Amino acid sequence: MTRVKILDKEFETSISEATILESINEVAKRVNHDLKDENPLMLCVLNGAFMFAADLMKAVTIPCQISFVKVASYNGTSSTGSVKQLIGLNEDIKGRSIVLVEDIIDTGVTIKGLKEQVVAMGAKDVRVATLLFKPESCMSGIKPEYIGLTIPNDFIVGYGLDYDGYGRNLRDIYTLVK
Ligand code: IMP
Ligand code: MG
């Protein structure tokens, strides 16, 4: 096991790059099969999903497009609290098959909000592809169509995921040492 120090915390390797890439190939096979006649638009949710989206796109062989979006959190004055709003989407998605490409689903709040917004914009079909899924903490009832790896409820970094902006460039995934 390799240890790294990021800011004030220690992390150690938990998922190798080879395991990550294998799981992405399995996701891609299913996307290739399920969406071959759908001309899907992949929506990569920045920042965390940039590396996953790149490797996924290399393994997807059907006609498809990719675009990049961000999530902005607004703490509104209403009692509904924090709202996650989708920004940066310039494509007309009416009638299209969309695949939301996420790094990780934890509580599921982010992806649930995004999915609702994409549906409201007139998408025909919205699927979720996430590299990592933490089922223990997923309260929102979201069931992603495509899951790379299911992981325990620990904090991780690497392969696009960060701790305070650092660690995204690590090739493997590392878990916080408690
Ligand atoms: P959710 O709305 O709780 O599902 O949170 C999803 C977002 O939180 C992800 O897109 C990540 O940006 C971030 N996140 C959740 N868990 C982790 C983790 O273990 N490491 C780094 N970022 C995480
Ligand atoms: Mg994310």
Detail the topology: elements first, then pairings.
Elements lengths: L2 E4 L2 E7 L1 H18 L6 E5 L4 H10 L5 E11 L6 E6 L9 E9 L3 H12 L4 E9 L12 E5 L5 E2 L15 E4 L2
The structure holds inosinic acid and magnesium ion.
Could you walk me through the main structural features you see in this protein, from its secondary elements to its overall organization?
This protein is of the alpha/beta class. It contains three helices and ten strands. Strands 5-4-3-6-7-8 form a six-stranded mixed beta sheet, sandwiched between helices. The radius of gyration is 16 Å and the shape is globular. The model has no long low-confidence stretch (mean pLDDT 93). The site of magnesium ion has 5 residues, from strand 6.
